[in-house]
Write a structure and sequence with these properties.
9 helices, Gfo/Idh/MocA_Oxidoreductases, single chain, NAD, Gfo/Idh/MocA-like_OxRdtase_N, 2 domains, NAD(P)-bd_dom_sf, 9-stranded mixed beta sheet, alpha/beta
């Protein structure tokens, strides 16, 4: 069997990285690129830049990656599904959960792989943390807290910080805990003069009882990408910007300080920063897509899962608008 023929729709700020990785993945050939805006980052490297998804499909593809603005995801995905092309769309899956549901249904009916580019799931720090939690190293999980903040990215124009950055944290939280959201309460603000929110604080609970908290914004001069999982044996801290994972263990040494011993909590223990292989998340994501298309194994973020994450985003927006907690 020859290499899979891949097409890429959109070579903007994110699409240019997909173009690079698609050329690096074994068993995949990038044979076609489409972007009505042309090749402003110079990533085509001799491949003709086509004008639209229809011309992309006409080349003959096994799989496609959609990296156009969110509002155009549904139209492109439905056309690719109708043409029998396995597809991964960038996150969020669509601009509304209804659109996402139509996309997921179309790929399911056609028996095609439909994936969503929630690349943080492939971050080595989160992969290692999830493995260790599954192995019982943390014991019972109590709380997951994330912080994702930094300067405003000029490339984002069609969604607010919840659907752009928040989608990462909502997805990775449910994935790490292996449980869906049960409820969410959120507050937002608009400080940058745009119609969409640029800051959100959200708190809630997963269906398995784990408490969650998210601090997300585009208004911070420093970039932060942290996920802290606290449990009965300590806390894991994953820094997804560096791929580092640190474990803060509960202390086992008894203290003789009477004022402290009266507190029935935990004390500081050993701190361990783990060493493990760190692969580029985007490359791991594309390899998972390739393997799913080949039927080797299925480790993708499915469109159905993408819809669940978008429903959490919509719940956060609804909670901020109403001032009330929203049940999912």
């Amino acid at each position: 069997m020859g290499n899979l023929r891949a097409g890429l729709l959109g070579i903007g700020s994110m699409g240019r990285h997909h173009a690079r990785v698609l050329r690096e993945v074994d068993g995949v050939d990038l044979v076609a690129i489409a972007d009505p805006g042309g090749d402003r980052f110079g990533v085509a490297h001799g491949v003709e830049v086509l004008p639209d998804v229809e011309s992309l499909i006409a080349v003959g593809l096994d799989l496609a990656v959609v990296a156009v603005p969110t509002a155009f995801h549904e139209d492109a995905a439905l056309k690719l599904a109708a043409a029998g092309v396995h597809t991964m769309v960038e996150k969020p899956i669509a601009d509304t959960s209804g659109a996402g549901e139509r996309m997921a249904a179309a790929f399911a009916r056609a028996g095609l792989v439909g994936a969503v580019g929630h690349v943080e799931r492939y971050n080595p720090a989160l992969q290692e943390m999830r493995r260790r939690i599954e192995a019982g190293e943390l014991g019972e999980v109590y709380q997951i807290a994330t912080r994702r903040q930094g300067p405003f990215p000029a490339r984002i124009a069609d969604v607010g910080v919840i659907k752009d950055l928040g989608a990462h944290d909502f997805d990775l939280t449910a994935w790490v805990a292996q449980s869906e959201y049960a409820s969410l309460s959120a507050q937002t603000t608009h400080r940058s003069g745009r119609q969409h929110e640029d800051m959100v604080v959200a708190t809630g609970r997963l269906k398995n009882g784990v408490m969650v908290n998210h601090t997300i914004n585009w208004l911070s001069p420093m970039k932060e990408r942290l996920c802290v999982v606290t449990g009965e044996r300590g806390a894991f801290v994953a820094d997804t910007s560096t791929g580092d994972l640190t474990f803060f263990a509960n202390g086992l040494i008894q203290t003789e300080w009477e004022a402290v011993t009266a507190f029935r909590g935990v004390s500081e223990g050993d701190i361990t920063r783990f060493a493990f292989a760190k692969r580029e998340p985007l490359r791991a994501e594309h390899e998972a897509l390739r393997d799913a298309v080949l039927g080797v194994q299925n480790d993708i973020v499915t469109m159905e899962q993408g819809v669940m994450t978008l429903l959490v985003c919509e719940a956060a927006l609804a909670s901020a608008a109403s001032g009330s907690s929203v049940s999912l």
